[in-house]
Amino acid sequence: MIEVNNLVKRYGDHTAVDHLSFKIEKGKIYGFLGPNGAGKSTTMNMITGYIASTEGTVTIDGHDILDEPEQAKKCIGYLPEMPPLYFDMTVGEYMNFVADLKKIPKDQKKSMVEEVMEMVKITDMKNRLIKNLSKGYRQRVGLAQAILGYPEVIILDEPTVGLDPKQIIEIRDLIKSLKKKHTVILSSHILSEVSAVCDYVLIISHGKLVASDTPENLGKLAEGSNTLNLLVKGNKDHIRIALGQIDGVKDITVASAKEEHAWNVMLSTKENMDIREEVFFKMADAHCPILEMQSKKVSLEEIFLELTEDDKKKKNEKETDKKEGENK
Ligand SMILES: Nc1ncnc2c1ncn2[C@@H]1O[C@H](COP(=O)(O)OP(=O)(O)OP(=O)(O)O)[C@@H](O)[C@H]1O
């Protein structure tokens, strides 16, 4: 449906998007996840033809977005980070205006506008000026203009930013319902949002794709490096030797604990293995009582943080530079 090939965007000597390649298939919800400044909006603006790429191509249903923009754009509905609303129009006037821009046939216009307004629950606001709407309703109007004409692909840049929790749930449910008829791509810096709504996640950091998979598989990836934390009493070497005999143990760290004669032991295990019972019996055989045992799964959140750590470091460095500059 959409093919992104080696996409690059440079602003002067800053590379905002760095050789991105991925494919989007029909009928799924894709999540573009990354911290602020990772390059999500820039990528979406290139996919939708708002800005040109420095290098690389985007094809939508076989049409190159720069060579055949009209055909390519016909397949897309876009809600940019700042919805393109006209504040002095009423909701109804704006929807009719968008319908004309999208060249929706006259005989379908009225019913389609009504249907979409019903879908995003803005029918009651039809006669209100957009400038008098709350942020949540403005977002819905923005979503309505993206859906109008029922394009095959709907692209939403941070669709829930600035909304209250109730509005967030409503917008998320609406996005999920779009999957029945559309392919959806949404960007977010909120991990829970992407894992709650999306079938597939693309994690972007510093303009590069650092991981892409289903939320379940990304979760499994994390499970591959589970850890077991123990507080064990006894001889340090005996503990280490006994635990080292267990299959699937990748790494053992033993550090002194606050409690006398006790050790904080951290075991990292292979794959998705549960070795708790074996640990119990090994320690019993070695006469090393376990005082505490806690298994810790690495969450999707932790993978996300790890994968995007570079961005945070750079940001912190920049902030330190700035502060140092200010102090001079
Ligand atoms: N017009 C521009 N000129 C110069 N630099 C830009 C421009 N637009 C974006 N950038 C830079 O490109 C990088 C990526 O920005 P982008 O807006 O795509 O990030 P993002 O992941 O969407 O983040 P956010 O969620 O904060 O919008 C940032 O470092 C940003 O400062």
UniProtKB/TrEMBL annotation:
Enzyme class, first EC level, given as a word: hydrolase
GO molecular function, one term: ATP binding
Family matches, as InterPro entries: AAA+_ATPase, ABC_transporter-like_ATP-bd, P-loop_NTPase
All residue ranges annotated as the ABC transporter domain in the record: 2-231
Keywords for the protein's UniProt record, in alphabetical order: ATP-binding, Hydrolase, Nucleotide-binding, Transport
Superkingdom of the organism of origin: Bacteria
Transmembrane segments: none
E.C. code: 3.6.3.-
The keyword ATP-binding appears for this protein: yes
CDD domains: ABC_DR_subfamily_A
UniProt keyword Signal present: no
Protein family: Belongs to the ABC transporter superfamily.
Record protein name field: Putative ABC transporter ATP-binding protein YxlF
Organism: Blautia obeum
Taxonomy of the source species: Bacteria, Bacillati, Bacillota, Clostridia, Lachnospirales
Gene: yxlF_1
